[in-house]
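U., I forgot to send this yesterday:
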Amino acid sequence: MPSSVPSDERPARASDVDEICLGLPQVELGTSWGDVPTYLVGGRGFLLFRKPHRSALDPATGEPYDDLLVVVTPGPAEKASLVEDERLPFFTIDHLARTNAVLVQQSRLGEISRAELAEVITDAWAARAPKRLVREHLGSEHG
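Result:
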């Protein structure tokens, strides 16, 4: 029996990250920080798979998170709105205090819809993509 939930309203999955990122113009999967898988546009990273590190510990286990994504936000206001909305799984750490980026565990992506994930990733892409490319892809309200 087919699902009555539109595909973009279903819970997000970790596999959606690749599909959404690679569906945006001029995106390539490269690396940053040596060997960290990173989605890039125009050579600028907008989403990366963070290695486990003592700067981001799971409060339940005390162990470093092993499934974090770092997602760029357009600015401090957008970062704050993602982190401060208690229904969203995004958070930050002291290590990211001076950056416009948030963290999210891949295992918690199902707490948001695929459409919400696509919006956050598209905003990250638009924050790093050349302005002309953003205008061509998203229209004049961006860039």
